[in-house]
Fold this protein.
Amino acid sequence: MNYRWNWSILLQEPYTEWLWSGLQWTVAISLVSWALALSVGLVVGVVRSLPSGILRVIAGIYIDVFRNIPPLVQLFLWYFVLPEIVPETIGLWIKRDLPHPEFVTAVVAIGLFAGSRVAEQVRAGIEAVGNHLMPAALATGLRPMQAFRLVVVPLGLRAIVGPLTSEFLVTVKLSSLSLTIGVLELTAQSRHIENYTFQGLEAFTVATIGYLLIGLCVTGLMRLIDDRVGGAALRKAGS
Amino acid sequence: MSDFDWGVIARSWSFLAEGMALSALLVVVATIGGLVIGFGLALMRLSSNRLIAGPAAAYVTVMRSLPLVLVLFWFYFLVPLAIGRPIGSLASALIAFVMFEAAFYCEIIRAGINNVRQGQTEAGLATGLRRSQVMRHIVMPQALKAMTPLVLNQIIIVFQDTSLVYVVALHDFLTTASIVAARDGRPTEMYTLVAVVYLIICLSSTKALEFYRKGRAG
């Protein structure tokens, strides 16, 4: 292999700047779409755990549809198709006046895809806890809705802090898809540097380290949370 | 709202079918290659020798924390440099997919093998079987049973992942559709078609898998 590694290229202007801003976009997209995914996932997951009703069916349809279309295809639907099928004034607004349209589209697409995965975790958590605790909670005299709201949902959510960490890391990885609609996040910036300098491997290495660092920080932070309030704390309290 | 013109699908059908065939090829190669290399990695990770287990664990951790898009770029640029000649985007994408999915299959296989209780190995050894025989006749059959649904699930994920070769301009199903969308100015029809086709294939596979799981559990 006769590739001439040249790490100093990354210290030159503007490439350092590019990578740094790419990392910031990656973090921004990940965090905002994660906030969306958590909110949607919590609501849908809880609704999906209800015993019956039309809402439960709708939640199931959302989960099935959003989990089974590849995220990149969903991103294209939001970006290319949505402005065409909504009424013309709204379509024009999306294309012309929406601030940071690529960022917003990426967040919506990634957030709703990740939201369907979070919803499944939430449902699984509630189901796992509910089977044991529901009869006990009912025996103490709570009404079914109270038992569900006050006992099963909070404990179910605490039990899934661990799996939610992996879901967040999936979301960080998904943020890379937004390069296809022109968001210059970390992966896009390293590709960009390869275009300009032909020294792509250095840039890709830095991007790789960036994703690893984000992953390490998230896992560490979540382990802390898990120990305090999550599944680990629950197991400790139970033993 | 643009008027729908579904004729565009009929006119581009053979091109789209070529894209679908490429997606299918990626799934088959990534699954077979990923399982083979993943099995090797799993055996390495299960080794008690740290010099063997460590590198495999590091490889799996790195691959699993990277976006597939970045891994595609890595191999797209690295492989030609490593062997000194261009190999084209298809070959590099196939290699990237195999190496990426191997990390995920490794974890599935490792969990499957770990799932078989240690006592079974000890009992097998006590009856006088050799270690390789225990692995082949006692551990693997049970591990396979535990692994099958997870592997099938991973194949569905691989199928969804194939859409990402868009970034290295390979003509998979999504890319062919986007080419038609740009050429004919018909993004609505083309991307809806792609979404519906993926939805039908993935949803029916997922439901079939759930059905199969429930059947085995009950």
User: Anything to note?
Assistant: The interface with chain A takes residues 1-2, 62, 65-70, 73-74, 77-78, 81-84, 160-161, 163-164, 166-167, 174, 178, 181, 187-188, 191-192, 194-195, 198-199, 202-203, 206 of chain B (CB under 8 Å).
